[in-house]
Amino acid sequence: MIKKFFITFILLILMIFVSINQASAATKVMWGKTELKIGQLGKVTILSNTSLWKLNSDGSLIKIRDLKKGEEYRVYSYKSVHGGLYGVGTGAFVQKSSSIKYETPSKVKLRLLNGSKPEIIVTPIDPNPGETNPVEPPEPVEVISVE
Question: Do 74 and 92 form a contact (C-beta atoms < 8 A)?
Fold first, then answer.
């Protein structure tokens, strides 16, 4: 009797754990080639091959490796030294230049990431009865006479 209760209890806990993991996996928000993460400021897209840098304690840059055209990296911080450095995590930086494109996530993506549904704005056909909505004038019409 105790064994059956214990086994049932363990199975119940496992089912709850699995359903929680599935729910959190469903909130994955993709942004281009990368997943949008909490705390992410933006992303950089590599437009032409460039370098990944480490910022030394004395302020100098040390090249880590080359980044290839088309790759995308999450940006978590920004430093205004060396013309601008985008922090891509683990102490690595991409230098601001024409070789990269920096973007910030849309409000819709941020709402999805935070677990709320995107805001949908519905505009009624006639928001204020009795008032007229602006209408573009029609294009000139050519009159053809049939005789």
Answer: no
Q: Among 82, 104, 106, 105, which residue's Cα sits nearest to residue 94?
A: 82
pLDDT band at 38 (very low <50, low <70, confident <90, very high): confident
- Give, for 111, the enclosing helix (H) or strand (E): helix 107-113
Structure tokens at 113: 């990431």
Q: Report yes or no: 83 and 95 within 8 Å, Cβ to Cβ.
A: yes
How far, in Å, CA of 126 to CA of 147, rounded?
42
* Cα–Cα distance measured from residue 95 to residue 2, given in angstroms and rounded to the nearest whole number: 63
Q: How far apart are alpha carbons 12 and 10 in whole angstroms?
A: 5
What's the rounded Cα separation, in Å, for the pair 31 and 24? 17
The amino acid occupying position 137 is: P
Band (pLDDT 50/70/90 cuts) for residue 2 is confident
Calculate what percentage of the chain has a pLDDT beyond 70: 65
Q: What is the pTM of this model?
A: 0.61
Q: Any idea what the Cα angle at residue 109 is, between residues 104 and 114, rounded to 5°?
A: 110
Whether residue 109 contacts residue 102, with contact meaning beta carbons closer than 8 Å, is answered with no
